[in-house]
Automatic annotation (TrEMBL):
Pfam family, one: Impact_N
GO BP, one annotated term: regulation of translational initiation
Impact N-terminal domain ranges (all copies): 20-127
Recorded family membership: Belongs to the IMPACT family.
Gene source species: Christiangramia crocea
PANTHER family associated with the record: IMPACT FAMILY MEMBER YIGZ, IMPACT-RELATED
Superkingdom assignment: Bacteria
Name the UniProt record assigns to this protein: YigZ family protein
Record-level GO cellular component terms: cytoplasm
Amino acid sequence: MKDTYQSITKPSPEVLFKDRNSKFFGYAFPIKSEEEANEHIDELKAKHHKARHWCYAWQLGKEEENFRYRANDDGEPSNSAGMPIYGQIQSFNLTNILIVVVRYFGGVKLGVGGLINAYKTSAQMALEESDIIKRTIDEVFVVKFDYPEMNKVMQVIKQNNLNVIDQKLEIDCKVFISVRKKDAEKIYSKFDNTYKVEITKLRD
């Protein structure tokens, strides 16, 4: 079971690609939502307010079957900008990422082939300057129990080196744990088979 994905840790440095007087500034951003992507695009439109095009592509989701993406040519000929940028996201096997390429028109038309190459290269350059990280796909569970069962629960957590992300230890206790997807079923069974302990999956 594949339970990892790749993204970038922080925004890339600005990169610049030139072709026949046109300038293409490339940027990559880690994102968690479409709204976050739109905020970065708006910031670049304000920064480069004299540019002609702000073309971009983003992808969200941790698993291939749940990926969502968008590619935008922003006035360039169809599929000459957004899809070449998106192709680099796929080529580097990344998700939860936005790439924007800002174009200043230099007075010479590049043709569709020239545009595809310029947008692809600018996106590639931005990704080559980015810090790429592999992350695990985790599932979150809440384990509920009464105080006398505390030792049993903590023993399972310790033995399996589980990540406790929150806990509320009162008369009735709740411990929130994060588990790698490939181990989730096994860990669920351990708690589910423990007397007087209840486990519930919260989210992927």
